[in-house]
Design goal:
Length: about 500
């Protein structure tokens, strides 16, 4: 069924013996509000216990199939944890939740929770007649069948010299509880930081999946623009990106369910530990209030006894003092029981925390190893496909073969097919220009004498210039130019 903030469902506990009133019933119908009643009732009946977290209410999307199924799964986990909890499995409210029929369960839910207040005003004989002690739901009969409240007090508490300091009662375990509170507070902050980072990793994984999908789409389009083998290889790269996109999406889902969710649940469990410590503090306040009332009643009784004519009021005050003493004793027993339960629960929490964290981190590492192996396989399958892509043409040497650099050459016009021959008048004009130049000054002692240049004849056709290794050499032989416009002496490089 659904309602009260979400769907509940049929509850079929896996127990060795049937605990239902009617043997014909194998399931009971419970709504979310019924589970919430059980959660709150457990806090009152078994104060100091670490109550497993219950799924929170949700205002929107309450009736979608996915939400109803998730809510049913979370409530089932909650109920199973309560059923195997060493401090909760024998709680009266759990028994009512599992075995009561519809009418009985509705009556139990609407019943006013006046039992603790009634117990505080009852004297020990009334409490023994009702079968309850300082803790609701716990019989106060000794193994021999006689009521013995004092025997229920732990040795650590009986040796305590209770005092009111700083408006709160003190106990020998207060220093230990202070250390526990500091430990839990620090653990809460650290675990919230880890949970936040895990949530960020899951979000980035989903973003990476979307990015790889777009990457693969781009390579598919690029492959269509190419032809033959290269286009097919690029398409294969797009297929690999699509496969990695799917792999990243699946990996992000696994991280969310196997890493992020356990960490978030662990944060809620730490909050439950803090609630257990809060319940002890509430019992401490209640015990302090009872002691304060008891001291006030004792002072009033002493005042009335010292006043003549106040015998009747003194008798009423004495009866009130007895009731106050019984209430203070009950509050003391409750405070003691809750304190001891908190110590047991914190010890169990530390042991289970180490096991849970080891298992969660171990599963996360295995998940990462498997994920990276799958991704490596996908990328590795692309290498032979890309290696089989041919080069631009058959003349391009294979990879690793050195190709010599081209040698630039310069050729005269006579060596160029189709170029006009060099005219003889050009050589004559060059000779006349050299004769018209002024004679050079005689050489000094610091400058060696240069020999006179004979008249230059027509230069022969120079040979092909070889590559010069000097940094200033250009590898080009210049041919003298004349005044002709025939374009002789044009330089050519072998490209």
């Amino acid at each position: 069924g659904g309602g009260g903030g979400g769907g509940g469902g049929g509850v079929t506990p896996d127990l060795s013996q049937s605990i239902f009133q009617n043997a014909a019933y194998s399931a009971v119908l419970r709504r979310y509000s019924d589970f919430l009643w059980l959660y709150e009732r457990l806090h009152r009946e078994r104060a100091g216990a670490i109550i497993p977290p219950i799924p929170e209410k949700q205002a929107v999307s309450r009736f979608t199939p996915a939400f109803v199924e998730q809510r049913r799964s979370d409530l089932e986990i909650f109920l199973r944890r309560v059923a195997v909890h060493p401090e909760l499995r024998d709680a009266a409210c759990l028994d009512t939740f599992l075995r009561a029929d519809e009418a009985t369960f509705r009556a139990a839910k609407t019943m006013k929770d006046n039992m603790p207040n009634m117990m505080m005003s009852m004297n020990p004989s009334d409490m023994s007649a009702s079968g309850y002690g300082g803790q609701m739901g716990m019989p106060m009969t000794s193994p021999g069948g006689t009521v013995s409240t004092e025997k229920k007090i732990k040795s650590w508490f009986s040796e305590t010299k209770t005092s009111i300091a700083g408006d709160l009662v003190r106990s020998p375990d207060d220093d230990l509880f202070d250390e526990i509170e500091q430990y839990v507070a620090g653990l809460d902050n650290q675990m919230r930081a880890v949970s936040t980072q895990a949530t960020g990793l899951v979000r980035k994984g989903k973003e990476l999946a979307n990015g790889m999908f777009e990457f693969g789409l781009a390579f598919h389009l690029l492959g269509r623009s190419e032809q033959e083998v290269l286009g097919s290889a690029l398409t294969k790269v797009g297929d690999a990106a699509d496969a990695i996109s799917v792999l990243n999406a699946e990996h992000a889902d696994l991280e969310a369910t196997q890493f992020e969710a356990p960490l978030q649940d662990y944060v809620k469990t730490i909050h439950a530990v803090r609630l257990a410590l809060t319940r002890r503090h509430e019992r401490r306040l209640a015990y302090t209030a009872r002691l304060s009332e008891l001291n006030a009643k004792q002072a009033n009784l002493m005042k009335l006894r010292s006043t003549p004519g106040q015998e009747a009021k003194a008798y009423a005050a004495e009866m009130s003092l007895q009731r106050g003493q019984a209430a203070a004793d009950a509050a003391r027993d409750d405070f003691m029981a809750v304190s001891q339960r908190v110590l047991r629960e914190v010890d169990r929490f530390k042991r289970e925390k180490a096991e849970d964290m080891k298992r969660t981190v171990y599963q996360y590492i295995e998940m990462q190893i498997l994920y990276n192996r799958k991704m490596e396989t996908i990328w590795a399958d692309l290498i032979p496909i890309l290696e089989n892509v041919p080069l631009r043409d058959d003349q391009v040497p294979a990879a690793g073969v050195d190709v010599p650099a081209p040698t630039p050459v310069s050729l005269p016009n006579d060596a160029i097919p189709g170029a006009p021959p060099q005219p003889a008048a050009q050589a004559q004009m060059q000779q006349e220009q050299q004769q018209q130049q002024p004679e050079q000054q005689p050489p000094t002692s610091a400058q060696p004498q240069q020999q006179a240049m004979p008249p230059a004849a027509a230069p022969p056709v120079p040979p092909v210039a070889e590559q010069d290794d000097s940094p200033d050499a250009s590898g080009i032989t210049d041919v003298p130019l004349g005044d002709t416009m025939m374009g002789s002496g044009v330089q050519y490089r072998n490209m």
